[in-house]
């Protein structure tokens, strides 16, 4: 570890910065969701590191041992449940392991895999974020009480949403089977809900319903791709 890491890990939590001394590894491929988590960690006093895939998460974990692990269930190279399961069963277990997803139906799977908790996207409320982590920490890691509970909602930079749309537009252009569409619906669902894009979220849910019914998806995928492209065009060059 470097000097800054050492300093962060030895600082005690305070009432205003209840997560001081914690390092959070976020395994999440959405730039928009990560930006929200970065802001929440910054306001809480935690140090944050990010991995956008299972492969990169394993690379981080060979070098750093975070205090808290936040794992998205839908990742480009596999399920976050695999990572949760392997780390929950490992020796020297990470203190707090939490699964995150825009699909609340996966919460039982997250808990069965060995996670300590689950947070549904969008993750934007500062008090809820802090409490979701603090409830799993031992007494010696708790901030002093009483403490002010911040009623604050973070709003990530729209540039991050634009980046996510560009990413999924490329995936849609290459989509040739159910595996890609599994990823598309998981990724876009979380992004749309985080950005409060209700129209896009509805289109994704309609596509998912058609998939479940075994319908031909060509027209629906084309319409979803067009919707994504229209949002990219509307946001203009960055």
UniProtKB/TrEMBL annotation:
It comes from the Bacteria. The keyword Lipoprotein does not apply. The keyword Phosphoprotein applies. InterPro entries: Bact_response_regulator, CheY-like_superfamily, Sig_transdc_resp-reg_receiver. The modification 4-aspartylphosphate is found at residue 72. Pfam families: Response_reg. Gene3D superfamilies: 3.40.50.2300. Keywords: Phosphoprotein. Residues 23-136 form the Response regulatory domain. One of its GO terms (biological process) is phosphorelay signal transduction system. This is Response regulator receiver domain-containing protein. It comes from Yoonia sediminilitoris.
